[in-house]
Amino acid sequence: MSDIAKARRKGRITRHRRVRKKISGTAARPRLAVHRSNRHITAQVIDDESGRTIAAASSVEPALRSNSSGSVEAATKIGALVAERARAAGVTAVVFDRGGNLYHGRVAAVATAAREAGLEF
């Protein structure tokens, strides 16, 4: 890993810690956490009080795996799927955790798709 990559990773982790100081998932309003890598995107609905994942969706899943698993298109599918699974588990409102990433591109696509699928945040 180059020095530039290390600096970027450190910056993202610092931003994530700053965001997580203010955001915490409860049973009433769990946290919708997004993790973005170069090739894939993952979204989880987490209750931090009990330390339990309520719903999750990832581009690594066989049903969603395609050549463009790291695209905005794939992120939109993930957002809609995680919202559908969360609503099936009885969750209607969440707190959005962008994971230290900018609210742009794939991260914003997950949020928009989740909102359109019925989650409130």
Key features of this structure:
121 residues, 3 helices, alpha+beta, 4 strands, single chain, globular, Nucleotidyltransferase, domain 5, four-stranded mixed β-sheet, 40% helix
- Write down the Rg: 14 Å
Q: Helix content range of the residues, please?
A: 25-40%
**Overall body shape:** globular
How many domains would you count in the coordinates?
1
The fraction of residues in strands falls at 15-25%
Number of strands: 4
Give an overview in words.
The protein has three helices and four strands, in the order αβββαβα. The mean pLDDT is 94. It is α+β, with helices and mostly antiparallel strands. 40% of the residues lie in helices and 19% in strands. It is globular. The termini are far apart. It has a single domain (3-116), classed as Nucleotidyltransferase, domain 5, CATH 3.30.420. It has helices at residues 3-22, 72-88, 106-116; strands spanning 31-36, 41-47, 52-58, 95-97.
Write the layout of secondary structure elements.
Elements: H1 3-22, E1 31-36, E2 41-47, E3 52-58, H2 72-88, E4 95-97, H3 106-116
Parallel strand pairs: 1-4
Antiparallel strand pairs: 1-2, 2-3
In brief:
By secondary structure, this protein is an alpha+beta fold. Helices cover 40% and strands 19% of the residues. The longest helix has 20 residues, at 3-22.
